[in-house]
Amino acid sequence: SSHEHKLNFKRSKEACLSYIQDAMLQKQWKRAAEFLTFYVESLEKDYSREPIGPSEMIWRIGTEILCHHSRSSTKEFNCFMEQMKTLGVKRYLKVCLEHVFHLLCNGQIDEAYQNLSLAESWRFGEQTALQDKEMKLIQAYRGLLDYYSWSKQKNILLEHGKCLDGFADLSVEQEMHSCFRKAAMNLKEIIKIPGVWDLFVKCYVDLLEFYGDHNEACQVLNEYAYNSKFPANPNAHVYLYQFLKRQGESKKSLISALKILHDIVPSHELMIDFNTMLQKSKKRKKRRLGLEVIFAALDYAGWKENVKAWSCLARQVKQIVISGKHLDWIKQEWNSRKDWWPAFHFSRYLAKRNWQENKSLSYEKALVAGILLGKDCKYFKYVSHQGCKAQVKRFRMLKKFVNRHNPVYLRISG
Question: What's the predicted TM-score (pTM) here?
Answer without folding.
Answer: 0.83
